[in-house]
Amino acid sequence: MTGKPALTHLGADGQANMVDVGAKAETERTAVAEGIVTMLPETLRMIRAGDAKKGDVLGTARLAGIMAAKRTHELIPLCHPLLLTKVSVDIEPDEALPGLRVTALARVTGKTGVEMEALTAASVACLTIYDMAKAVDRGMVISGIRLLEKSGGKSGDYRADS
Known about the structure:
4 helices; 28% helix
């Protein structure tokens, strides 16, 4: 072994399996993920003004992200169902892109991390923004879905390079 961590979702025979977390200690675990939706400046103005024909883009995307985090185990085959204690989705306009920056936080006190829940929340919030504004801007680009930070658990803390 070269010191790199092993893939935990592969058994000795190379088959995919769900990790056994039964012997792990329950700790508070937090993860923060982000995503970016770039768009035309006029699309960003429309969303900020609340003039999208489908309704409140930011509120709907925030709610969709929270709901998605709660259902991550139904979407990602080997994820454990978690009793999340906190999920939040923040969406900030960024004129320099132009577009929206989505930040999702997930927290649990449990035996496994919440990185996938935070990443799912950010992804679905970005997809919802696209869906609600695609009638006026099909050229929007979703990018930068990534884990920003995580804390708790055996592997310790992680913070992405800026």
